[in-house]
């Protein structure tokens, strides 16, 4: 490909070409801690609670680790014993050798069994733990209050569900070996010191040197690892932008400019990773030199001790074996350090999510009525999202079963909050919301969901077939019911025209359908749910007049025989309602039928007379005039 | 950009959204291809390979010195017993061996460092270039392809798959070389000492090799399956969180958890199978290795007793085996990474090998525009993914030029947006042609075409950046006065000025949230800034209120004087002032003329639509009458 170059050096002309107002990727700096402390007791404690279901398995794993280490340590000892007892010059003993071989075979088999058990239990537990953590986060996000979800971006949650879980996976997978390594390390030290304290001590004298090197190396390396990590997250951010904003990029011809900027980021990523790699690899010759020194010590000192007859030659051989096995774990543990830091930070973010307070909970004695009568009543409801800033103040109204009530009012008047309270998305500060004769806090949230169907302003669809989208949570709905619902809202025709009909897979968010078609599907979805109460937030974005007509027809069909609370934007919808409630600044200012409100000549009448196709079309300055007129009147 | 045509290359418009289907067949060719990429960095690869060979060689010296040391110590021991040996000389020999051993260890360390560093550097360079290729490729692939592909899937390819490919050099190529050197070199040394002992010591190699290659194939399948499940899981989670209000509204948490668990459990089952396979193969390899060590001790011990070999030679054989312990353990990781590299590589190359269906013709020249003149001549169009007889547009002819604004209206699905897409050549016409200032748009460079054409979308994408960056997106060299002028025309300036940070205010996913109308106005400002000669408004004021729209129109009066303007809208007030209005239905122009002409036909489609919208439209005309 044309971008192939061997040198990572920056292009000199790039600096001049860079336009003043161009960036790729987010302009916001890294705002999340990528690295935490290497050991965070709080995070570890939380981890442990997730490990309780696997207690027996972990006990088994620990036993396996110990057995594995002991057998691992025994192997050189058997070799040593064989050399010293069976192969010693002048006193060779073939039977003893065979006996040692048999022991060796037994130990090796035990080692295999322990190794297998250890790796299986640790890997499986790690795997289960990751899936458990992800599920715990996801399940918790299904029940946390919407006020939390309102404030948090999907992207950020996804990075926790994926990126952070991935960081933990990396940690847990490598920790399988680390655990064995640490135990082995202590085992080797113990065995060497017990075989010969003097030679053992001298051999281990290189360890403090290694520690000193580490103390200098660690902070520098840590900085390099962090830089690399940040560079790659910045590169990925820029790539994400290229994926999501591709249409705008192609339309505005930003390909070349963006590519130049991306290349600079990718280059920085390359260079920081190379630096980090240098830090990682510089430890290799250091560790090898120390290993070599330790072996040289064993040879020179051990050799002369053999000469003094103060050391068996087999012990010297065993020492040489242990020294070779000793330093590899130390090196891998060093690398483990940065993975651990990342895992701790990731763990903290994961538990942050699972710890989000659930504000709306089912009462312990919450009822789950099979049938309700469909009446809605607000009694002196006051509610807001932030303390001290009520959005609704002392709202009281009733909707009789089967009645359609339209909520109208300017933006910010509290319409959406009112409908959200019917479904108990939030809890009121004061007063009561009564649905079907019961306070919403006295019934389960699930029963509210079953008796209240909602159509949201944005017709959100899932990547699934059309049929699955219409059926959605009403698992028992037959194909016939789905078709009947689609026919009732006038969506059947366009669905049938699609090559695969109801089995057509929708693209991401239903991108292969028009806005109007998506709205019709969301109506059909509400119809299949067949609830007594309908809460509908009419879409504001204007669709073409044909679809508009179809939507009005579908709406009429949807409202039949149901209690409906509608946030109405279209005048046609408003006029069709049995009653209209006019909200302003979180209070009900007027209430009545269209004709009655026109006769009363209040805010509604003024807004209506402005003759906009929808109340939301009214420009702010005119709206202000209408509102201030009202102020003079009262 | 196009690479040699040997590989299975496909035009993006013709592939399914599911373009993973043939990944598993590409196995070795994918690995060869990655290896070839590595060898493009000749100097580094040469250093890495030489370093690998040297590291292996020095590592092989270590057991030899150890063996020699044991024999020397034994010699010392024997000498001391008999008193016949000069102990100073023997001790000097021991010291020499120790120093040689130290030197070999240091050399091994240095060369291993070089090997690892250069290996990783080549891997990083491959990652760097593939990342650039991938970015470039995504930019050049047609919209019809992007429409069908899930964004999460592309991110997985751009991040995880590149990572998998990158690791191949180090874990695949260099480690294979090192392992070959260690086993091969060790075999030579061992065979020189004693054939039987060598055979026994190396007996584990063929068994491990067979075991590894079986495991590799099985692991590879689980990798593919797992990757696919995780992609689905990502999609499900992302949509659930994005549509959380729908989930809550239908009290569908239980339904969503069932959905999640079904996929997550499948993924976990695959992951567990992978663990089982992996653990079984690695532990078996270690076991076979230890058995070989036991055999070596047995056979070697017998030979020491026989006096065929010395104890030092046995130590050497055992020490050599010890050196292989780490690599044997790593074979497991190696095969895992081979499996990963070929899967990831396959997925990545499936995108990199796509040929953009929309690209410059070989003899493409830059478009020359003075005043914009857009002509459609009998244009017909069919989407590549649609059936042969299913035409989206037929016989579309019109001309937009300065002073002759075109309005396009019609029911949904009539093909209005397609017309806009064709002008920017996001798709190629199936019949007829489109010209700008007399030049067929297929004969000019894409860059010059898109510079000359500005299309304003209904649902604009905002970048996570400040407002001025967003407005200047199409012309990042623009000065502040130009940015403000565009914002003024789009009726955005007053709003922006009132913000605490004005034009530095951050918008987009993580910035302040703008209303639908504000986003559309920003998108209009963005489209006006580059001063393109052709302006297409594709339903771009649907969320802007009628009065603001009218003010935008007023502000644009002078600006559009020397430009071709095409307005697509469903609100008639947006386009009734156009010089010519086309009523499109079923992909054909069924009525055309000025507003007054079209209104004259009492049974016409336009007139019907007008009556349908009468209430809103009357309001606007009333207001315009009094203004």
Descriptive overview:
The complex is a heterodimer of chains A (about 625) and B (about 625). Chain A is an alpha/beta fold and about 625 residues long. Chain A is built from 22 helices and 10 strands. A 6-stranded mixed sheet of chain A has the order 6-7-8-3-9-10, with helices on both faces. In chain A, strands 2-1-4-5 form a 4-stranded antiparallel sheet. In chain A, helix 3 (about 55-85) runs antiparallel to helix 4, helix 4 runs parallel beside helix 11 and helix 6 (about 155-195) packs antiparallel against helix 11 (about 315-355). Chain A starts with 13 loop residues before the first helix and ends with a helix. Chain B is of the alpha/beta class and about 625 residues long. In chain B, strands 6-9-10-3-11-12 form a 6-stranded mixed sheet, with helices on both faces. A 4-stranded antiparallel sheet of chain B has the order 2-1-4-5, covered by helices on one side. A two-stranded antiparallel ribbon of chain B has the order 7-8. The longest helix of chain B has about 55 residues, at about 85-140. The two termini of chain B are about 55 Å apart. The model of chain B is unreliable at about 1-5 and about 615-625 (pLDDT under 50). Chains A and B meet through helix 3, helix 4, helix 6, helix 8 and helix 9 of A and helix 2, helix 3, helix 4, helix 5 and helix 7 of B.
């Amino acid at each position: 490909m044309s971008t192939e170059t061997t040198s990572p050096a920056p292009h000199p002309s790039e600096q001049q070409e860079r336009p003043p107002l161009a960036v790729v990727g987010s302009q916001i700096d890294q705002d999340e801690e990528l690295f935490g402390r290497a050991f965070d007791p709080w995070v570890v404690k939380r981890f442990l609670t997730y490990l309780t279901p696997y207690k027996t398995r972990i006990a088994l794993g620990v036993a396996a680790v110990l057995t594995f280490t002991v057998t691992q340590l025994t192997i050189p000892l058997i070799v040593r014993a064989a050399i010293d007892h069976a192969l010693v010059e002048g006193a060779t003993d073939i039977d003893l050798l065979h006996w040692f071989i048999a022991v060796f075979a037994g130990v090796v088999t035990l080692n295999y069994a322990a190794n297998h058990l250890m790796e299986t239990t640790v890997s499986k537990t790690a795997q289960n733990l990751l899936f458990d953590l992800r599920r715990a986060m996801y399940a918790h996000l299904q029940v946390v209050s919407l006020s939390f979800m309102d404030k948090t971006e999907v992207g950020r949650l996804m990075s926790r569900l994926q990126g952070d879980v991935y960081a933990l996976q990396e940690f847990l997978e490598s920790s399988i070996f680390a655990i064995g390594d640490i135990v082995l390390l202590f085992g080797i030290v113990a065995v060497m010191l017990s075989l010969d304290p003097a030679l053992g001590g001298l051999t281990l004298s290189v360890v403090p040197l290694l520690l000193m090197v580490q103390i200098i190396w660690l902070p520098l390396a840590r900085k390099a690892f962090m830089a690399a990590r940040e560079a790659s997250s910045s590169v990925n951010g820029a790539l994400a932008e290229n994926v999501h904003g591709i249409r705008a990029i192609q339309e505005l011809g930003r390909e070349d400019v963006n590519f130049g900027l991306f290349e600079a980021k990718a280059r920085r990523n390359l260079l920081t990773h190379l630096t980090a790699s240098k830090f990682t690899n510089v430890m290799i010759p250091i560790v090898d030199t120390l290993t070599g020194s330790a072996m040289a010590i064993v040879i020179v000192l051990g050799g002369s001790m053999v000469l003094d007859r103060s050391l068996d030659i087999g012990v010297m051989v065993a020492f040489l074996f242990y020294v070779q096995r000793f330093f590899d774990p130390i090196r891998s543990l060093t690398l483990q350090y940065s993975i651990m830091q990342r895992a701790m930070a990731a763990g903290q973010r994961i538990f942050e999510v699972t710890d989000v307070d659930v504000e709306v909970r089912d009462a312990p004695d919450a009822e789950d009525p099979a049938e309700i009568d469909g009446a809605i009543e607000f009694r002196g409801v006051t509610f807001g999202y932030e303390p001290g800033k009520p959005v609704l103040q002392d709202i009281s109204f009733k909707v009789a079963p089967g009645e359609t009530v339209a909520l109208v009012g300017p933006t910010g008047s509290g319409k959406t909050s009112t409908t959200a309270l019917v479904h108990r998305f939030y809890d009121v500060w004061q007063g009561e919301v009564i649905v079907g004769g019961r306070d919403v806090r006295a019934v389960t949230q699930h029963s509210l969901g079953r008796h209240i169907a909602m159509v949201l302003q944005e017709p959100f669809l899932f990547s699934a077939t059309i049929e699955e989208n219409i059926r959605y949570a009403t698992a028992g709905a037959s194909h016939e019911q789905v078709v009947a619902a689609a026919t009732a809202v006038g969506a059947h025709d366009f669905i049938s025209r699609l090559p695969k009909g109801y089995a057509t897979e929708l693209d991401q968010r239903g991108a292969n359908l028009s806005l109007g078609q998506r709205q019709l599907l969301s109506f059909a979805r509400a119809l299949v749910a067949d609830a007594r109460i309908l809460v509908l937030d009419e879409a504001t974005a204007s669709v073409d007049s044909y679809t508009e007509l179809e939507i009005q027809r579908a709406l009429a069909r949807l409202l039949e025989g149901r209690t409906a609370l509608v946030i109405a934007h279209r005048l046609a919808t408003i006029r069709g309602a049995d009653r209209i409630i006019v909200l302003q600044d979180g209070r009900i200012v007027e209430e009545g039928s269209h004709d009655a409100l026109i006769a009363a000549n209040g805010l509604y009448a003024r807004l209506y007379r402005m003759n906009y196709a929808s109340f939301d079309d009214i420009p702010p300055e005119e709206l202000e005039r209408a509102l201030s007129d009202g102020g003079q009147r009262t | 950009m196009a690479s040699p045509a040997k590989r299975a290359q496909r035009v993006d418009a013709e592939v399914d959204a599911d373009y993973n289907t043939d990944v598993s067949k590409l196995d070795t060719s994918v690995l060869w291809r990655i290896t070839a990429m590595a060898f493009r960095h000749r100097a580094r690869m040469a250093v890495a390979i030489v370093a690998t060979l040297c590291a292996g060689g020095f590592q092989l010296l270590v057991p030899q010195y150890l063996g020699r040391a044991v024999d020397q110590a034994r010699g010392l021991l024997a000498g001391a017993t008999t008193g016949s040996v000069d102990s100073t000389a023997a001790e000097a020999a021991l010291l020499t061996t120790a120093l040689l051993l130290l030197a070999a260890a240091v050399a091994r360390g240095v060369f291993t460092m070089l090997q690892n560093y250069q290996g990783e550097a080549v891997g990083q360079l491959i990652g760097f270039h593939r990342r650039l290729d991938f970015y470039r490729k995504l930019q050049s692939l047609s919209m019809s392809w992007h429409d069908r592909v899930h964004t999460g899937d592309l991110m997985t390819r751009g991040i995880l798959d590149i990572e998998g490919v990158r690791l191949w050099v180090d874990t695949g190529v260099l480690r294979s070389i090192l392992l070959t050197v260690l086993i091969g070199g060790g075999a030579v040394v061992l065979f020189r000492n004693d054939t039987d002992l060598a055979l026994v010591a190396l007996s584990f190699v063929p068994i491990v090799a067979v075991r590894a290659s079986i495991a590799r194939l099985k692991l590879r399948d689980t990798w593919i399956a797992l990757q696919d499940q995780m992609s689905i899981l990502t999609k499900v989670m992302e949509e659930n969180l994005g549509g959380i209000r729908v989930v809550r509204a239908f009290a569908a948490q239980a339904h969503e958890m069932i959905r999640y668990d079904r996929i997550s459990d499948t993924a976990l089952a695959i992951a567990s199978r992978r663990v089982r396979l992996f653990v079984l193969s690695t532990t078996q390899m270690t076991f076979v290795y230890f058995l070989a060590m036991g055999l070596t001790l047995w056979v070697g011990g017998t030979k020491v007793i026989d006096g065929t070999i010395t104890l030092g030679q046995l130590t050497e054989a055992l020490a050599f085996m010890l050196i292989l312990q780490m690599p044997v353990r790593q074979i497991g990781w190696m095969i895992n990474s081979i499996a990963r590299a070929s899967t990831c590589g396959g997925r990545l190359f499936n995108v990199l090998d796509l040929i953009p269906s929309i690209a410059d013709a070989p003899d493409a020249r830059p478009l020359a525009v003075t005043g914009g003149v857009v002509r459609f001549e009998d244009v017909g169009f069919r989407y590549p993914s649609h059936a042969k007889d299913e035409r989206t547009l037929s016989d579309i002819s019109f001309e937009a030029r300065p002073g002759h604004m075109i309005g396009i209206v019609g029911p949904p699905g009539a093909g209005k947006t397609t017309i806009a897409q064709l002008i920017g050549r996001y798709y190629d016409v199936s019949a007829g042609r489109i010209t700008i200032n007399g030049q067929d748009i297929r004969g000019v460079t894409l860059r010059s075409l898109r510079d000359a054409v500005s299309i304003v979308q209904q649902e604009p994408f905002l970048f996570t950046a400040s407002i001025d960056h967003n407005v200047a997106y199409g012309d990042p060299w623009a000065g502040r006065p130009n940015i403000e002028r565009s914002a003024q025309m789009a009726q955005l300036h007053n709003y922006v000025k009132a913000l605490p940070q004005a034009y530095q205010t951050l918008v987009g996913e993580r910035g302040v949230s703008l209303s639908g109308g504000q986003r559309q106005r920003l998108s209009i400002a963005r489209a006006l800034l580059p001063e393109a000669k052709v302006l297409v408004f594709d339903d771009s004021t649907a969320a802007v209120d009628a009065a603001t729209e009218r003010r935008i129109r007023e502000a644009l009066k002078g600006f559009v004087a020397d430009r071709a303007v095409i307005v697509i809208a469903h609100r008639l007030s947006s386009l009734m002032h156009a010089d010519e209005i086309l009523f499109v239905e079923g992909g054909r122009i069924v009525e055309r003329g000025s507003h007054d002409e079209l209104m004259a036909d009492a049974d016409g489609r336009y007139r019907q639509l007008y009556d349908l919208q009468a209430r809103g439209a009357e309001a606007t005309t009333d207001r315009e009458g009094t203004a």
